[in-house]
Amino acid sequence: MSPRVPGPETPSGVSLPRIRRDRHGRGMRGPLAPAGSPLAVSRAQRFDDLVIGAVERLDRRWQDQLAKVEFAVEDVPALDDWDRTWVPLARAYAGTGALPARVVVFRRPVETRATDPSKLRALVGDVVTEQVAELFGVEPEEIDPAYGGRDLP
């Protein structure tokens, strides 16, 4: 961070802070990509959009049941109560009391397993389908007929 030096005084005699520029005279730079361009969207936001798309696709067939389910994305799972040797891609939590049922998709483990954007989209769709199927106690193929038929890594 650049040091602050006293700036010009205002008519009331108060000195305003002035930010020094770097030694090349450029100072703070603006964003690298314009706000509307694809480069301006973060990987996390793109992943969130994939999860939303997968949920919307399932919502067409299971609207009433999915209205009672919350979906979330976390970067990595908390493995405090996890007793297996593999890292989960998502977890489904049944509703208890006032808390609704919840599906949490873990972004980093899913991204690590996909080699390109189309495979990532397919993997996210299958992961969301598996978790919804687990919540409803049915097979994933019943939730989404396209389950498993997509090109996965």
From TrEMBL:
InterPro entries given in the database record: Zincin_1 (IPR010428), Zincin_1_sf (IPR038555)
Extent of Basic residues compositional bias: 18-27
Region of interest (Disordered), ranges: 1-37
Protein name as annotated: Metallopeptidase family protein
Top-level taxon of origin: Bacteria
Organism: Jiangella ureilytica
